[in-house]
TrEMBL record:
The keyword Aminoacyl-tRNA synthetase does not apply. InterPro entries: GDP_fucose_pyrophosphorylase, GHMP_Kinase-Related, GHMP_kinase_C_sf, GHMP_kinase_N_dom, Ribosomal_Su5_D2-typ_SF. The keyword Transmembrane helix does not apply. It comes from Gallintestinimicrobium propionicum. Keywords: ATP-binding, Kinase, Nucleotide-binding, Transferase. This is Bifunctional fucokinase/L-fucose-1-P-guanylyltransferase. Residues 133-475 form the GDP-fucose pyrophosphorylase domain. Pfam families: Fucose_pyrophosphorylase, GHMP_kinases_N. One of its GO terms (molecular function) is ATP binding. GO terms for biological process: GDP-L-fucose salvage. SUPFAM superfamilies: GHMP Kinase, C-terminal domain, Ribosomal protein S5 domain 2-like.
Length: 1000
């Protein structure tokens, strides 16, 4: 990168930073007035809407007074006449003679028909009466019809897009760049006016500008003479002032006229001129009465700011030559009379030449220039942060796009530029096209075409179509001669919708664009455009693109905390309603739609910072599981109590590999893989469920652990199993899951017991194991209840059916957990438990083929240690699920890795390599800590540390944070040695070894 490029890059950043500071600090020097000129009231309304939008979104300094002034009375008065109109406006505003005077800074004002035309009287010699003293005024002449870029006629070329993102995340426009680039100029002048052309973007460093004197100063940049031949050029005199103006001269002529320096460079006219207060007063003296204003500001004189106001300031200019200068309109007596007065008022002043270097300017002149700038020409400005793709879902590099949704199944030709448009499936756009403000749904657009949509004031639509290289000032369309200039040719059909207008215009193209009786021209569609519809359409598209970008990230399961940054911290009610509406329509029993739905809700929780959307996310997960779980639930009135009493006792389980991969929604989207083992404590199965007959018409539930017991005679009480604080929630869920009582329908307990043949008693307990053990006791207890009930009813139950009934119980109780705990205790031995990706989980249980010798070694070296602390209740499930749904890359990686380790563990055990298994257990422990830092604490770390020299592997049981720990002892180390070490360190605090054995 060259020094010149680096300088411009840093200057650009400096201006942007300074502008951000000005937005937040009104005490910094800034413009007192920013005035935009417009060609007519309709265009002025469009400009005011744009400025109001920026004020609403804190994109403009509120201290500044903004005004948009159309040419008076709808007449074209030229850029010079528009400048005089600006001076009159400021004079009257400052004097407080209009209703505008009461409007606070930050408002947007204009010169509409309802506003006063009253002039402030002034004595000769004191024309402006200090109206301009101490005022910094920025005027941007933007009143053209944009004939050579018709797609910007309605919104104005000044508000055409610039391909970079502003600091607030919004797409920039030429106006935004003006405000940023020129903010530093205000500090480089005491007072006066800076006048700019609205179709030229200057890139420079304001520190190179100094203007505190009288007269004027032209801002010029150095460019090679080869470039200067296509632009206006200043010839510098000996005093450093502008000696003369040379417009579109050949390189030879520029040399002959002394405009080229020794390096072959010329001083380019950028269209930016600074004027002192004295000069402004002199200009205002030309219009300080109604009669004078009418004489100078009219269609006959049509004064040009550049030809009529600047020429008299050149030191080498003469009055005779001034009369011959090419006017903005026609040579008329009115123009000659005005020039005589202007010469007398301005020729006494000089115009200093301020050269800015390094500097650059970008001319937004024609459609062809625009297309080049937005595509292959973009490389020249990437150092400024410009991008070929701004706020679009498309990442295709062969074309440019801004604020547009482009279907992945649309075909856009190389070198095209798409802005403010929808391109749906099947759309084909040829090469080198400009598509602006339209919706395309499967149509084909030929190469080298501009297609631009406008909403008209009557609510209908027109789509204008012409060639990229067409000049609307000429009588040609797509290179073919037509009867009149393209600008006024009524060849475009009007339709009720934008889609209909697209189709009608494309048909007109195929027919050769005949003149239509009810057709409309570029000119008339510009004049009749509904300018109030432009910003809402752009906002709607911006929302659409951001929503689609978010949905693409959701479908790829990207990190949602990163994906939502597309909204730049701002989200409106319309976006929230669209996302909620989309989520509500999705079927949570279809895996793809389920995945989208939960992540839309999660994204909304990120965007709005409201827990209700996270609750909707988790509720959707629970509901999807519940719907699948209860699908086969039904009350069985034929069920009979076949035995007097049934007792079922089950082992607990220890988790080795893959824990958490069984948790929804991960297992639903990826399937789960878990390696665990059934374990007896002190040679006993500690999980017990008892079912027995009792006399009478009651159902009695008991929890031996808590000493609670209750008789139920109301069916509704038994159907309420979702209260986590209910000591009988598990019992009730078991009765529902096994068909003993109905899930929803209402029958009496008396009828239930009559069908059963007696009353029913169901009791549960976990023998001598502390709560929060991490050994899966709650889920295994559910399995014990199901087995006991089915055995009491004399029904056969396959392992798969047993797992499904217990899963059903879990969901009826709204625990939201996985399936590995119950399978761990219900299926004997060491086994690999898996499921495929599906909403309704089908559990597969595969016993491991472990030799007798390996199982014996495992039993000798495997040890459970109670941590002496009960595992505290945490929102752990909510946290892990949230992080997975959000696409947290570390969480996703860990969940995948622990499944892989589970498979490797099985491999090592089946190979008889207990040491290799122990190493994998250590790896899993490290992964568990990455997944949940709360799974360990000081006490747990200290326990593991105290026996570090005695063990080869370590792991928590369950979610950790307390309860039991598990270790693999070194060969030759005994359980007694571990117990002795623990007592030495922890004495009688409850930290101790529990005798256990793996169930074969």
């Amino acid at each position: 990168m060259s020094y010149q490029t680096l300088f411009l890059q840093q200057s650009y950043r400096d201006c942007t930073k300074q502008y951000e500071e000005i937005l937040h600090n009104p005490n910094l020097p800034l413009w007192d007035y920013v005035v935009l000129t417009a060609s007519n009231e309709a265009q002025a309304q469009a400009y005011r809407a744009q400025i109001s939008y920026r004020l609403k979104h804190q994109m403009l300094p509120e201290k500044t007074h903004y005004a948009v002034l159309p040419d008076p009375d709808g007449k074209r008065v030229g850029s010079g006449g528009a400048t005089l109109n600006v001076l009159r406006y400021i004079r009257e505003h400052a004097a407080g003679k209009q209703s505008l005077a009461a409007v606070p800074h930050g408002a947007v004002q204009g010169d509409g028909a309802a506003e006063s035309r009253q002039f402030v009287s002034a004595q000769p010699g004191e024309a402006a009466c200090h109206a301009f003293d101490g005022k910094r005024i920025l005027v941007i002449h933007s009143g053209g019809d944009s004939k050579r870029v018709p797609q910007y006629s309605a919104c104005g070329k000044l508000f055409s897009p610039v391909p970079r993102i502003l600091p607030n995340g919004r797409r920039s426009t030429l106006f935004d760049e003006f405000m940023i680039a020129m903010c530093g100029v205000a500090a480089r002048m005491n007072a006066g006016m800076l006048v700019c052309s609205g179709d030229v973007l200057l890139l420079f460093n304001p520190l190179q500008i100094d203007f505190y004197g009288k007269g004027a100063a032209a801002l010029s940049i150095k460019e090679p003479a080869e470039i200067g031949k296509n632009h206006g050029v200043y010839r510098r005199d000996r005093e450093g002032n502008a000696g003369g103006f040379l417009h579109k001269k050949t390189v030879e002529q520029l040399h002959e006229m002394g405009a080229v320096d020794e390096h072959g460079y010329v001083d380019i006219d950028t269209g930016a001129v600074m004027m002192s207060v004295d000069l402004l007063n002199s200009l205002y003296s030309l219009i300080d009465t109604e009669e004078k204003f009418a004489a100078c500001v009219n269609e006959q004189a049509r004064l040009s700011f550049y030809a009529d106001f600047l020429y008299p300031l050149a030191s080498d200019s003469t009055l005779e030559q001034y009369y011959q200068e090419t006017p903005e309109g026609e040579f008329t007596p009115e123009l000659r009379a005005c020039r005589e007065k202007i010469w007398a008022a301005l020729h006494p002043y000089q115009m200093k030449l301020i050269r800015m270097s390094p500097a650059a300017f970008i001319h937004f002149g024609t459609t062809r220039e625009l297309l080049h700038l937005m595509t292959e020409g973009m490389e020249q400005f990437t150092h400024l942060g410009w991008q070929a793709r701004i706020n679009t879902n498309s990442q295709e590099k062969s074309y440019g796009a801004g604020n547009s949704y482009i279907s992945l199944r649309a075909d856009v030709g190389a070198g095209s530029y798409i802005e403010d448009s929808y391109l749906h499936h099947g759309t084909v756009v040829g090469e080198r096209c400009v598509i602006s403000g339209v919706t395309l749904d499967g149509q084909r657009v030929p190469a080298d075409t501009v297609l631009h949509g406008l909403k008209l004031q009557d609510g209908r639509f027109v789509v204008r179509m012409y060639g990229v290289c067409d000049n609307p000032k000429e009588a040609a369309l797509f290179g073919k001669k037509i009867d009149e200039p393209l600008w006024t040719a009524a060849v475009y059909p009007i339709r009720n919708t934008i889609q209909e207008a697209v189709s009608a215009t494309l048909r007109a193209y195929e027919d050769g664009f005949p003149t239509l009786k009810d057709g409309i021209s570029l000119k008339d569609s510009f004049n009749q455009a509904d300018v109030t519809a432009i910003l809402p359409w752009q906002d709607k598209l911006e929302d659409k693109v951001k929503i689609e970008s978010l949905l693409e990230a959701i479908d790829k399961k990207d990190n949602l905390h990163e994906a939502v940054k597309v909204f730049n911290g701002e989200i409106n009610g319309r976006v929230i309603r669209q996302l909620c509406g989309l989520a509500e329509k999705l079927d949570e029993q279809e895996l793809f739609e389920f995945s989208r739905k939960i992540r839309i809700y999660y994204a909304l929780s990120c965007l709005t910072k409201q827990d209700k959307y996270l609750d909707l996310c988790l509720d959707t997960i629970r509901n999807a599981i519940l719907v699948g779980a209860v699908a086969g639930l039904s009350y069985d009135p034929t069920a009979k109590m076949e035995q007097e009493e049934v007792v079922v006792r089950l082992p607990v389980r220890v988790n080795w590999g893959g824990g958490w991969s069984d948790t929804p929604p991960y297992c639903m989207e990826h399937g789960g893989t878990v390696l665990n083992a059934a374990v007896k404590l002190d040679g006993q199965n500690p999980v017990e469920a008892v079912v027995k007959k009792i006399p009478g018409n009651q159902i009695v539930l008991a929890s031996a652990d808590s000493g609670a017991e209750q008789a139920f005679s109301e069916i509704s009480q038994l159907q309420d199993s979702s209260n986590p604080y209910d000591p009988f929630a598990l019992h009730k869920a078991a009765l529902i899951a096994c068909g003993i009582i109905p899930y929803r329908e209402q029958i009496s307990v008396e009828e239930v017991t009559k069908n059963l043949g007696s009353g029913l008693y169901l009791s549960t307990q976990v023998i001598h194991i502390p709560r929060g053990s991490g050994l899966g006791t709650s889920s295994i207890l559910a399995g014990a209840c199901v087995k006991a009930i089915y055995r009491m009813l004399g029904k056969e139950l396959s392992q798969e059916e047993l797992y499904n009934r217990v899963l059903c119980m879990e969901q009826i109780m709204s625990t939201g957990g996985g399936w590995q705990d119950q399978v761990g205790g219900l299926a004997p031995g060491i086994k690999m438990v898996t499921s495929d990706a599906a909403i309704v989980q089908e559990i597969g249980c595969s016993p491991c083929s472990i030799s007798t010798e390996t199982l014996q070694e495992l039993n000798e070296r495997f040890c459970l240690i109670y941590s002496g602390q009960r595992r505290l209740a945490r929102n752990l499930l909510r946290d892990i699920v949230s992080r997975y749904v959000s696409g947290n890359p570390d969480t996703v990686e860990v969940l995948y890795e622990i499944q892989r380790i589970a498979v490797l563990m099985r491999f090592e055990l089946e190979k008889g390599n207990v040491d290799g298994f122990a190493q994998l257990l250590n790896q899993h422990w490290e992964l568990s800590k990455r997944l949940d830092g709360g799974c360990t604490n000081t006490c747990i770390d200290m326990i593991f540390s105290s026996v570090e020299d005695l063990i080869d592997g370590k792991m928590i049981c369950g979610a950790g944070g307390g309860g039991f720990l598990q270790v693999i002892l070194k060969k030759g180390v005994t359980v007694e040695q571990v117990q002795k070490r623990l007592r030495e360190v922890f004495q009688d605090s409850g930290v101790e070894v529990w005798r256990c054995s793996l169930v074969g």
